Amino acid sequence: MSPTIKVLLAEDQSMVREALAALLGLEDDIEVVAQVARGDEVLAAVREHAVDVALLDIEMPGCTGIEAAAQVHRSLPAVKLVVLTTFGRPGYLRSAMEAGADAFLVKDAPAAQLAEAVRKVLAGERVIDPTLAAAALAEGANPLTDREREILRAASDGSTNAELAKTLHLSQGTVRNYLSTAIQKLAVRNRAEAVRIAREKGWL
Amino acid sequence: MSPTIKVLLAEDQSMVREALAALLGLEDDIEVVAQVARGDEVLAAVREHAVDVALLDIEMPGCTGIEAAAQVHRSLPAVKLVVLTTFGRPGYLRSAMEAGADAFLVKDAPAAQLAEAVRKVLAGERVIDPTLAAAALAEGANPLTDREREILRAASDGSTNAELAKTLHLSQGTVRNYLSTAIQKLAVRNRAEAVRIAREKGWL
DNA sequence: ACTGCCGTATGACAGATGTCATGGCGACGG
DNA sequence: CCGTCGCCATGACATCTGTCATACGGCAGT
Protein backbone atom coordinates (compact mmCIF):
# COMPACT_ATOMS: atom_id res chain seq x y z
CA MET A 1 0.00 0.00 0.00
CA SER A 2 2.66 2.56 1.01
CA PRO A 3 4.28 4.42 -1.87
CA THR A 4 7.95 3.79 -2.57
CA ILE A 5 10.57 5.29 -0.29
CA LYS A 6 12.33 8.19 -1.99
CA VAL A 7 16.05 8.05 -1.42
CA LEU A 8 18.85 10.48 -2.18
CA LEU A 9 22.35 9.14 -2.63
CA ALA A 10 25.35 11.36 -1.91
CA GLU A 11 28.72 9.85 -2.70
CA ASP A 12 31.56 11.29 -4.69
CA GLN A 13 32.83 8.21 -6.49
CA SER A 14 30.39 7.74 -9.32
CA MET A 15 31.11 4.09 -9.79
CA VAL A 16 30.31 3.36 -6.17
CA ARG A 17 27.37 5.71 -6.19
CA GLU A 18 25.76 4.16 -9.23
CA ALA A 19 26.51 0.68 -7.94
CA LEU A 20 24.73 1.49 -4.70
CA ALA A 21 21.85 2.86 -6.74
CA ALA A 22 21.71 -0.41 -8.65
CA LEU A 23 21.68 -2.28 -5.38
CA LEU A 24 18.84 -0.22 -3.95
CA GLY A 25 17.04 -0.41 -7.27
CA LEU A 26 16.63 -4.12 -6.72
CA GLU A 27 14.33 -3.36 -3.80
CA ASP A 28 10.69 -2.92 -4.74
CA ASP A 29 9.86 -0.42 -2.06
CA ILE A 30 12.85 1.87 -2.60
CA GLU A 31 13.43 4.38 -5.34
CA VAL A 32 16.61 6.42 -5.79
CA VAL A 33 15.22 9.76 -6.89
CA ALA A 34 18.41 11.80 -6.75
CA GLN A 35 22.17 11.37 -6.81
CA VAL A 36 24.75 13.98 -5.93
CA ALA A 37 28.54 13.86 -5.82
CA ARG A 38 29.20 16.76 -3.49
CA GLY A 39 28.26 17.52 0.08
CA ASP A 40 27.17 21.04 -0.72
CA GLU A 41 24.57 19.88 -3.22
CA VAL A 42 22.74 17.68 -0.77
CA LEU A 43 20.35 20.16 0.82
CA ALA A 44 19.01 21.56 -2.46
CA ALA A 45 18.53 18.10 -3.92
CA VAL A 46 16.72 16.87 -0.82
CA ARG A 47 14.34 19.82 -1.07
CA GLU A 48 13.76 19.50 -4.77
CA HIS A 49 12.94 15.81 -4.79
CA ALA A 50 10.94 15.57 -1.57
CA VAL A 51 13.31 12.93 -0.33
CA ASP A 52 12.33 10.60 2.52
CA VAL A 53 15.78 9.28 3.34
CA ALA A 54 19.16 10.78 2.52
CA LEU A 55 22.10 8.42 2.27
CA LEU A 56 25.31 10.34 2.86
CA ASP A 57 28.90 9.35 2.43
CA ILE A 58 31.24 11.24 4.77
CA GLU A 59 34.25 11.85 2.58
CA MET A 60 33.03 14.19 -0.14
CA PRO A 61 34.16 17.39 -1.81
CA GLY A 62 32.19 20.55 -1.04
CA CYS A 63 31.39 19.57 2.49
CA THR A 64 31.41 16.34 4.45
CA GLY A 65 28.37 14.16 4.72
CA ILE A 66 28.24 15.02 8.39
CA GLU A 67 28.02 18.73 7.68
CA ALA A 68 25.42 18.03 5.03
CA ALA A 69 23.47 15.96 7.53
CA ALA A 70 23.50 18.85 9.98
CA GLN A 71 22.18 21.23 7.30
CA VAL A 72 19.35 18.92 6.33
CA HIS A 73 18.51 18.17 9.93
CA ARG A 74 18.17 21.87 10.69
CA SER A 75 16.12 22.78 7.63
CA LEU A 76 14.04 19.64 7.13
CA PRO A 77 13.96 17.70 10.36
CA ALA A 78 11.51 15.15 8.95
CA VAL A 79 14.05 13.81 6.50
CA LYS A 80 15.78 10.70 7.79
CA LEU A 81 19.55 10.61 7.59
CA VAL A 82 21.76 7.60 6.99
CA VAL A 83 25.49 8.23 7.18
CA LEU A 84 27.63 5.81 5.27
CA THR A 85 31.39 5.67 5.54
CA THR A 86 34.49 3.78 4.62
CA PHE A 87 36.07 4.31 7.99
CA GLY A 88 34.49 3.09 11.19
CA ARG A 89 36.02 5.83 13.24
CA PRO A 90 34.36 6.32 16.58
CA GLY A 91 34.70 10.08 16.34
CA TYR A 92 32.79 10.03 13.07
CA LEU A 93 29.94 8.16 14.69
CA ARG A 94 29.86 10.65 17.49
CA SER A 95 29.74 13.68 15.22
CA ALA A 96 27.23 12.04 12.89
CA MET A 97 24.92 11.48 15.81
CA GLU A 98 25.39 15.04 17.00
CA ALA A 99 24.52 16.20 13.49
CA GLY A 100 21.20 14.39 13.73
CA ALA A 101 21.90 11.18 11.83
CA ASP A 102 19.46 8.32 12.29
CA ALA A 103 21.76 5.57 11.10
CA PHE A 104 25.50 5.04 10.81
CA LEU A 105 26.77 2.33 8.50
CA VAL A 106 30.27 1.32 7.51
CA LYS A 107 30.89 0.21 3.97
CA ASP A 108 32.30 -3.09 4.97
CA ALA A 109 29.03 -4.18 6.49
CA PRO A 110 26.96 -6.57 4.36
CA ALA A 111 25.06 -4.85 1.57
CA ALA A 112 21.72 -6.11 2.84
CA GLN A 113 22.02 -3.75 5.79
CA LEU A 114 21.69 -0.78 3.52
CA ALA A 115 18.10 -1.31 2.40
CA GLU A 116 17.29 -2.55 5.85
CA ALA A 117 18.63 0.62 7.42
CA VAL A 118 16.60 2.74 5.03
CA ARG A 119 13.42 0.98 6.10
CA LYS A 120 14.26 1.07 9.76
CA VAL A 121 15.02 4.78 9.96
CA LEU A 122 11.78 5.49 8.17
CA ALA A 123 10.04 3.47 10.83
CA GLY A 124 11.63 5.71 13.42
CA GLU A 125 14.38 3.35 14.48
CA ARG A 126 18.04 4.16 14.84
CA VAL A 127 20.61 1.91 13.25
CA ILE A 128 24.09 1.81 14.73
CA ASP A 129 26.71 -0.89 14.75
CA PRO A 130 26.88 -1.89 18.42
CA THR A 131 30.63 -2.56 18.30
CA LEU A 132 31.26 0.90 16.98
CA ALA A 133 28.89 2.45 19.49
CA ALA A 134 30.82 0.76 22.27
CA ALA A 135 34.10 2.00 20.84
CA ALA A 136 32.76 5.53 20.57
CA LEU A 137 31.68 5.51 24.18
CA ALA A 138 34.83 3.83 25.46
CA GLU A 139 37.12 6.30 23.81
CA GLY A 140 35.53 9.40 25.25
CA ALA A 141 35.17 12.75 23.62
CA ASN A 142 37.69 14.59 21.54
CA PRO A 143 40.18 16.10 23.98
CA LEU A 144 41.50 18.64 21.52
CA THR A 145 40.41 22.25 21.51
CA ASP A 146 39.25 23.87 18.27
CA ARG A 147 42.54 25.59 17.78
CA GLU A 148 44.61 22.51 18.46
CA ARG A 149 42.57 20.58 15.93
CA GLU A 150 42.99 23.33 13.40
CA ILE A 151 46.74 23.52 13.83
CA LEU A 152 47.07 19.75 13.73
CA ARG A 153 45.05 19.64 10.53
CA ALA A 154 47.25 22.33 9.02
CA ALA A 155 50.36 20.44 10.09
CA SER A 156 49.17 17.18 8.59
CA ASP A 157 50.67 17.83 5.18
CA GLY A 158 54.18 18.12 6.56
CA SER A 159 54.34 21.89 6.83
CA THR A 160 57.09 23.27 9.01
CA ASN A 161 56.46 25.44 12.07
CA ALA A 162 57.47 28.56 10.22
CA GLU A 163 54.99 27.88 7.43
CA LEU A 164 52.23 27.08 9.89
CA ALA A 165 52.93 30.28 11.77
CA LYS A 166 52.66 32.28 8.58
CA THR A 167 49.48 30.73 7.22
CA LEU A 168 47.73 30.76 10.59
CA HIS A 169 48.97 34.23 11.58
CA LEU A 170 50.52 33.00 14.77
CA SER A 171 53.97 33.17 16.28
CA GLN A 172 56.16 30.17 15.74
CA GLY A 173 56.31 29.51 19.46
CA THR A 174 52.54 29.40 19.70
CA VAL A 175 52.37 26.83 16.96
CA ARG A 176 54.85 24.71 18.84
CA ASN A 177 52.91 25.08 22.06
CA TYR A 178 49.69 23.93 20.44
CA LEU A 179 51.34 20.99 18.81
CA SER A 180 53.05 20.16 22.05
CA THR A 181 49.80 20.08 24.02
CA ALA A 182 48.10 18.10 21.28
CA ILE A 183 50.94 15.60 21.35
CA GLN A 184 50.58 15.23 25.11
CA LYS A 185 46.80 14.91 25.03
CA LEU A 186 47.07 12.16 22.46
CA ALA A 187 49.89 10.53 24.39
CA VAL A 188 52.21 10.28 21.42
CA ARG A 189 55.74 11.44 20.74
CA ASN A 190 55.65 13.72 17.73
CA ARG A 191 53.32 15.60 15.41
CA ALA A 192 53.26 12.89 12.78
CA GLU A 193 51.93 10.35 15.23
CA ALA A 194 49.54 12.91 16.61
CA VAL A 195 48.09 13.46 13.14
CA ARG A 196 47.79 9.74 12.58
CA ILE A 197 46.06 9.02 15.87
CA ALA A 198 43.69 11.97 15.60
CA ARG A 199 42.77 10.81 12.10
CA GLU A 200 42.15 7.26 13.23
CA LYS A 201 39.83 8.38 15.96
CA GLY A 202 37.99 10.74 13.68
CA TRP A 203 39.08 13.79 15.64
CA LEU A 204 40.60 15.77 12.87
CA MET B 1 25.44 -16.99 -28.84
CA SER B 2 28.55 -16.60 -26.65
CA PRO B 3 28.14 -17.84 -23.09
CA THR B 4 28.14 -15.28 -20.28
CA ILE B 5 31.40 -13.71 -19.19
CA LYS B 6 32.51 -15.11 -15.84
CA VAL B 7 33.75 -12.38 -13.55
CA LEU B 8 35.48 -12.48 -10.18
CA LEU B 9 35.10 -9.46 -7.92
CA ALA B 10 37.81 -8.70 -5.36
CA GLU B 11 37.08 -5.79 -3.03
CA ASP B 12 37.31 -5.64 0.72
CA GLN B 13 34.32 -3.47 1.52
CA SER B 14 31.38 -5.81 1.26
CA MET B 15 28.85 -3.11 0.66
CA VAL B 16 30.77 -1.79 -2.30
CA ARG B 17 31.57 -5.26 -3.53
CA GLU B 18 27.98 -6.42 -3.48
CA ALA B 19 26.82 -3.17 -5.00
CA LEU B 20 29.24 -3.63 -7.88
CA ALA B 21 27.96 -7.18 -8.23
CA ALA B 22 24.43 -5.82 -8.44
CA LEU B 23 25.55 -3.39 -11.09
CA LEU B 24 27.21 -6.05 -13.19
CA GLY B 25 24.27 -8.35 -12.59
CA LEU B 26 22.16 -5.96 -14.62
CA GLU B 27 24.17 -6.87 -17.71
CA ASP B 28 22.90 -9.88 -19.59
CA ASP B 29 26.25 -11.07 -20.81
CA ILE B 30 28.09 -10.83 -17.49
CA GLU B 31 27.89 -13.14 -14.52
CA VAL B 32 29.67 -12.58 -11.21
CA VAL B 33 30.73 -16.11 -10.31
CA ALA B 34 32.94 -15.33 -7.33
CA GLN B 35 33.53 -12.62 -4.77
CA VAL B 36 36.50 -12.32 -2.43
CA ALA B 37 37.42 -9.74 0.16
CA ARG B 38 41.16 -10.34 0.38
CA GLY B 39 43.97 -10.14 -2.11
CA ASP B 40 45.44 -13.45 -1.09
CA GLU B 41 42.23 -15.32 -1.93
CA VAL B 42 42.11 -14.13 -5.52
CA LEU B 43 44.28 -16.73 -7.22
CA ALA B 44 42.52 -19.76 -5.73
CA ALA B 45 39.10 -18.34 -6.52
CA VAL B 46 40.08 -17.55 -10.10
CA ARG B 47 41.24 -21.14 -10.53
CA GLU B 48 38.22 -22.67 -8.91
CA HIS B 49 35.62 -20.80 -10.89
CA ALA B 50 37.29 -20.73 -14.29
CA VAL B 51 37.02 -16.97 -14.33
CA ASP B 52 37.32 -15.01 -17.59
CA VAL B 53 37.90 -11.60 -16.08
CA ALA B 54 39.13 -10.69 -12.60
CA LEU B 55 38.13 -7.31 -11.24
CA LEU B 56 40.58 -6.26 -8.57
CA ASP B 57 40.51 -3.42 -6.10
CA ILE B 58 43.99 -2.27 -5.10
CA GLU B 59 43.55 -1.53 -1.40
CA MET B 60 42.83 -4.90 0.18
CA PRO B 61 43.98 -6.89 3.18
CA GLY B 62 46.11 -9.96 2.52
CA CYS B 63 47.80 -8.50 -0.48
CA THR B 64 47.12 -5.62 -2.84
CA GLY B 65 45.15 -6.06 -6.01
CA ILE B 66 48.32 -5.37 -7.94
CA GLU B 67 50.18 -8.21 -6.28
CA ALA B 68 47.16 -10.45 -6.84
CA ALA B 69 47.14 -9.40 -10.50
CA ALA B 70 50.79 -10.40 -10.82
CA GLN B 71 50.09 -13.80 -9.31
CA VAL B 72 47.19 -14.49 -11.63
CA HIS B 73 49.09 -13.22 -14.62
CA ARG B 74 51.96 -15.59 -13.91
CA SER B 75 49.83 -18.67 -13.25
CA LEU B 76 46.95 -18.13 -15.62
CA PRO B 77 47.98 -15.68 -18.31
CA ALA B 78 44.73 -16.15 -20.20
CA VAL B 79 42.70 -14.52 -17.46
CA LYS B 80 42.02 -10.85 -18.13
CA LEU B 81 42.74 -8.42 -15.34
CA VAL B 82 40.89 -5.21 -14.54
CA VAL B 83 42.36 -3.13 -11.75
CA LEU B 84 39.93 -0.85 -10.00
CA THR B 85 40.96 1.78 -7.52
CA THR B 86 39.83 4.71 -5.47
CA PHE B 87 42.98 6.65 -6.12
CA GLY B 88 44.09 7.63 -9.59
CA ARG B 89 47.75 7.61 -8.70
CA PRO B 90 50.03 7.43 -11.68
CA GLY B 91 52.40 5.10 -9.86
CA TYR B 92 49.56 2.65 -9.32
CA LEU B 93 48.78 2.63 -13.00
CA ARG B 94 52.40 1.98 -13.78
CA SER B 95 52.73 -0.93 -11.39
CA ALA B 96 49.36 -2.35 -12.41
CA MET B 97 50.52 -2.43 -16.01
CA GLU B 98 53.81 -4.02 -15.02
CA ALA B 99 51.82 -6.65 -13.13
CA GLY B 100 50.02 -7.53 -16.33
CA ALA B 101 46.73 -5.67 -15.93
CA ASP B 102 44.60 -5.20 -19.04
CA ALA B 103 42.52 -2.33 -17.72
CA PHE B 104 42.90 0.34 -15.08
CA LEU B 105 39.78 2.08 -13.81
CA VAL B 106 39.27 4.67 -11.11
CA LYS B 107 36.17 4.47 -9.00
CA ASP B 108 35.05 7.94 -9.81
CA ALA B 109 34.63 7.11 -13.46
CA PRO B 110 31.04 6.54 -14.59
CA ALA B 111 29.68 3.13 -13.69
CA ALA B 112 28.96 2.25 -17.29
CA GLN B 113 32.68 2.00 -17.94
CA LEU B 114 32.93 -1.03 -15.73
CA ALA B 115 30.90 -3.44 -17.84
CA GLU B 116 32.36 -1.86 -20.91
CA ALA B 117 35.88 -2.49 -19.68
CA VAL B 118 35.05 -6.12 -18.94
CA ARG B 119 33.88 -6.62 -22.50
CA LYS B 120 36.79 -4.77 -24.01
CA VAL B 121 39.54 -6.64 -22.18
CA LEU B 122 37.91 -9.90 -23.20
CA ALA B 123 38.08 -8.70 -26.77
CA GLY B 124 41.79 -8.17 -26.30
CA GLU B 125 41.70 -4.41 -25.85
CA ARG B 126 43.39 -2.45 -23.13
CA VAL B 127 41.40 0.12 -21.20
CA ILE B 128 43.24 3.01 -19.60
CA ASP B 129 42.13 6.50 -18.72
CA PRO B 130 44.13 8.66 -21.14
CA THR B 131 44.53 11.50 -18.64
CA LEU B 132 46.01 9.14 -16.12
CA ALA B 133 48.22 7.52 -18.72
CA ALA B 134 49.60 10.93 -19.62
CA ALA B 135 50.21 11.72 -15.97
CA ALA B 136 51.99 8.41 -15.45
CA LEU B 137 54.28 9.07 -18.36
CA ALA B 138 54.87 12.71 -17.50
CA GLU B 139 55.88 11.94 -13.96
CA GLY B 140 58.52 9.43 -14.82
CA ALA B 141 59.48 6.38 -12.86
CA ASN B 142 59.82 6.01 -9.14
CA PRO B 143 63.19 7.53 -8.23
CA LEU B 144 63.38 5.79 -4.89
CA THR B 145 65.42 2.66 -4.33
CA ASP B 146 63.82 -0.37 -2.68
CA ARG B 147 65.42 0.41 0.62
CA GLU B 148 64.45 4.07 0.57
CA ARG B 149 60.87 3.10 -0.14
CA GLU B 150 60.94 0.60 2.66
CA ILE B 151 62.31 3.05 5.18
CA LEU B 152 59.89 5.75 4.09
CA ARG B 153 57.01 3.32 4.46
CA ALA B 154 58.22 2.38 7.93
CA ALA B 155 58.54 6.04 8.85
CA SER B 156 55.06 6.90 7.66
CA ASP B 157 53.40 6.15 10.97
CA GLY B 158 55.44 8.73 12.83
CA SER B 159 58.11 6.40 14.17
CA THR B 160 61.28 8.06 15.39
CA ASN B 161 64.72 7.38 13.96
CA ALA B 162 65.68 5.24 16.92
CA GLU B 163 62.59 3.05 16.48
CA LEU B 164 63.15 2.73 12.76
CA ALA B 165 66.78 1.75 13.36
CA LYS B 166 65.68 -0.95 15.76
CA THR B 167 62.89 -2.45 13.67
CA LEU B 168 64.92 -2.34 10.47
CA HIS B 169 68.18 -3.50 12.07
CA LEU B 170 70.06 -0.48 10.87
CA SER B 171 72.12 2.18 12.54
CA GLN B 172 70.35 5.39 13.33
CA GLY B 173 72.64 7.32 11.03
CA THR B 174 71.81 5.06 8.12
CA VAL B 175 68.13 5.65 8.65
CA ARG B 176 68.74 9.35 8.55
CA ASN B 177 70.82 9.06 5.41
CA TYR B 178 68.11 7.15 3.59
CA LEU B 179 65.44 9.55 4.66
CA SER B 180 67.66 12.45 3.68
CA THR B 181 68.20 11.14 0.16
CA ALA B 182 64.51 10.32 -0.20
CA ILE B 183 63.68 13.86 0.89
CA GLN B 184 66.06 15.25 -1.71
CA LYS B 185 64.85 13.01 -4.49
CA LEU B 186 61.29 14.05 -3.83
CA ALA B 187 62.34 17.69 -3.52
CA VAL B 188 60.63 18.25 -0.20
CA ARG B 189 61.77 19.47 3.19
CA ASN B 190 61.03 16.77 5.73
CA ARG B 191 60.00 13.15 6.07
CA ALA B 192 56.33 13.93 6.58
CA GLU B 193 56.13 15.70 3.24
CA ALA B 194 58.18 12.95 1.66
CA VAL B 195 55.67 10.38 2.83
CA ARG B 196 52.77 12.46 1.57
CA ILE B 197 54.25 13.04 -1.87
CA ALA B 198 55.36 9.45 -2.32
CA ARG B 199 51.86 8.32 -1.35
CA GLU B 200 50.23 10.70 -3.79
CA LYS B 201 52.33 9.46 -6.62
CA GLY B 202 51.75 5.85 -5.71
CA TRP B 203 55.43 5.27 -5.00
CA LEU B 204 55.11 3.87 -1.54
C1' DA C 1 34.65 38.41 42.71
C1' DC C 2 37.17 34.31 42.02
C1' DT C 3 38.55 30.36 39.37
C1' DG C 4 39.29 27.95 35.68
C1' DC C 5 40.13 27.30 30.61
C1' DC C 6 41.26 29.00 26.03
C1' DG C 7 44.05 31.62 22.94
C1' DT C 8 48.27 33.89 22.38
C1' DA C 9 53.03 34.99 23.35
C1' DT C 10 58.19 34.72 24.96
C1' DG C 11 62.60 32.61 26.19
C1' DA C 12 65.52 28.77 27.27
C1' DC C 13 66.86 24.15 26.88
C1' DA C 14 67.34 19.26 25.27
C1' DG C 15 66.73 16.15 21.98
C1' DA C 16 65.40 14.80 17.20
C1' DT C 17 66.11 15.57 12.44
C1' DG C 18 68.36 16.80 8.05
C1' DT C 19 72.85 17.54 5.59
C1' DC C 20 77.37 16.61 4.23
C1' DA C 21 81.83 14.36 3.65
C1' DT C 22 83.71 10.15 3.68
C1' DG C 23 84.50 5.27 3.76
C1' DG C 24 83.85 0.05 2.86
C1' DC C 25 81.58 -3.80 0.57
C1' DG C 26 79.32 -6.37 -3.15
C1' DA C 27 77.01 -6.66 -7.69
C1' DC C 28 76.58 -5.66 -12.45
C1' DG C 29 77.80 -3.75 -17.05
C1' DG C 30 81.15 -2.27 -20.24
C1' DC D 1 89.21 -4.74 -14.46
C1' DC D 2 87.22 -0.49 -13.73
C1' DG D 3 83.28 2.54 -12.93
C1' DT D 4 78.87 3.00 -11.11
C1' DC D 5 75.35 2.04 -8.10
C1' DG D 6 72.98 0.28 -4.06
C1' DC D 7 73.53 -0.66 0.74
C1' DC D 8 75.48 0.26 5.22
C1' DA D 9 78.09 2.99 8.42
C1' DT D 10 80.43 7.10 11.14
C1' DG D 11 81.09 11.80 12.77
C1' DA D 12 80.21 16.71 12.77
C1' DC D 13 77.31 20.38 12.14
C1' DA D 14 73.08 23.32 11.72
C1' DT D 15 68.42 23.53 12.19
C1' DC D 16 63.90 22.05 13.61
C1' DT D 17 60.96 20.18 17.21
C1' DG D 18 59.13 19.27 21.65
C1' DT D 19 59.03 20.77 26.57
C1' DC D 20 58.65 23.83 30.27
C1' DA D 21 57.96 28.02 32.96
C1' DT D 22 55.73 32.08 32.70
C1' DA D 23 52.63 35.74 31.34
C1' DC D 24 48.36 38.43 29.90
C1' DG D 25 43.50 39.18 28.35
C1' DG D 26 38.95 37.26 27.70
C1' DC D 27 35.12 34.62 28.79
C1' DA D 28 32.29 31.25 31.35
C1' DG D 29 30.74 29.15 35.50
C1' DT D 30 30.21 29.40 40.90
Q: Class of the largest domain in chain A, according to the CATH hierarchy?
A: Alpha Beta
Shape of chain A: elongated
Low-confidence stretches of chain A: none
- Sheet with most strands: strand arrangement of chain A: 2-1-3-4-5-6
| Number of self-contained structural domains of chain A | 2
Helix residue percentage of chain A: 40-55%
Q: Report strand % of chain A.
A: 5-15%
Distance between the termini of chain A: 45 Å
Largest interface: A-B, 37 and 36 residues
The chain-level mean pLDDT of chain A equals: 94
Measured on Cα atoms, how large is the radius of gyration of chain A?
Answer: 19 Å
CATH topology grouping of the largest domain in chain A: Rossmann fold
Described by its quaternary structure, the protein is homodimer
Structural class from helices and strands of chain A? alpha/beta
**CATH H-level name of the largest domain in chain A... which superfamily?**
Response regulator
The SSE string of chain A, one letter per element, is: EHEHEHEHEHEHHHHH
Number of helices of chain A: 10
Largest sheet, strands/sense/barrel of chain A: 6 strands, parallel
In the CATH hierarchy, the architecture of the largest domain in chain A is: 3-Layer(aba) Sandwich
Strand element count of chain A: 6
